[in-house]
């Protein structure tokens, strides 16, 4: 497994829906070996930004480059060729498949042989404490396990950059702490770059050395947790609603 050194560079990304500016001219980096936070009030444009990077939506302007390749404009299923993977805010598991099969499908889709995909699926299930429930259908798993499975599935594609859209949403505090521990281990072991969207600021502050803040489609601040916390525009964005 090669150690990641890639940086994802989002530059000037914009997208409007029927005249509503969801994302306006947003630029930031997701470097290897760092968990970068992306926060902002509901409707700030966080999910849309991820959807632009991974080609779920077409960008009106801007680019998302990794290793000199612009991902925007690629067919969605080709994103993983450039080692970018994501989880979805609303889970997108195959409900009729087992936990193991869900991860296996992702490893196969990333171009691995059946034998190698098997090994990868088992490893990722173990990394998220899902080994003992590998044979259970996704729709019969408890919510917290389904959230972890969504991440395990993204990691089975061996990304250099992992984009996580509200992975701790709906988890209880113990599950959230456990997920934080697992993400820290993944960052340390694999040195991948992670973009972490979440509303739980305690969770974000624990994991992220660098945080990007959005409000009403625009990036309004970026910096260390301390810098961001003391920024008047950030305080205004969170209180002014
Ligand atoms: P966040 O993830 O920060 O809560 P979103 O990116 O989901 O915000 O939404 C940003 C804005 O874009 C919102 O006003 C939302 O209603 C709008 N939006 C997002 N996706 C669509 C879509 N597919 N069609 C129309 N409007 C959308
Ligand atoms: Mg969202």
UniProtKB/TrEMBL annotation:
ABC transporter domain ranges (all copies): 8-241
Organism domain of life: Bacteria
Compartment(s): Cell membrane
Protein name, per record: Amino acid/amide ABC transporter membrane protein 2, HAAT family /amino acid/amide ABC transporter ATP-binding protein 1, HAAT family
Species the sequence originates in: Marivita hallyeonensis
Source species taxonomy: Bacteria, Pseudomonadati, Pseudomonadota, Alphaproteobacteria, Rhodobacterales
Portion of the full sequence shown: 363 to 603 of 622
